[in-house]
Amino acid sequence: MNNILEGKPLRYLIGAENGGTGNEGEITECPYALHKVRLGISVAYGNLFDELNTGNFGPYLRTSDTAVQYNEGQIDPAGDGWDKNLKMQCTRIKAAGFQFMEWDNPDAYDIKDVIYAVDYAQKFGLGVLAKNAGQFDLGDAIQYLKHENIWGCIVERDCGRPNLYEYLRKEAGKPTLPIWFVFFGNDQKAANEAAESIEENHYLNMGVTFSPRTEYTTSKDILVPITE
User: Fold this and answer.
1) How many domains in the chain?
2) Could you tell me the CATH number of the domain that includes residue 175?
3) Residue 107: helix, strand or coil by DSSP?
4) Considering only CA atoms, which of 225, 120, 107 is closest in space to residue 162?
């Protein structure tokens, strides 16, 4: 497929008050429930958890430490709340004019449920950026990235090194799939190491950014994706 996200840096700003104005030639992922940026490509943040912990998408599971840490409800895919949450977000995101979105916290679920969410977004005409695919077993990770509606992958610290994602995307039949490594806080060393690995191995379409303050409130390039 012709992927308009290839070669572009990602501004991962899900912790910011807003996404700013954006920049031509860049991708900006905006905070939850906020509008597109004016310049460049906008990505909406979507959450497989109950982002605001409303209690409206039950029943809920109690197996995710991440859900506890961020005070978000871990929705049970077997319950009515799962589709309700997906529909609410996809409807809002599509109406706001986004073309792409992320489903966060996929590692809290079975791959079949994650694929279901990717399919669901596709019905709304929304392309999906995978999240931390390396957290799954190899076969499941490859299936995730292989999906026709996956247009890139965002990777946080300790969720897989560049060489793993080079392997996964090749096995998925997408050797140039954009991969963005995002770091924040005390992760400067890890960000530099990821960038060095990408440069040394000349992995195309892999970028590294760092938010030196709190979690994903800013985005500084450590490595702009190599395109040739």
Assistant:
1) 1
2) 3.20.20
3) helix
4) 225
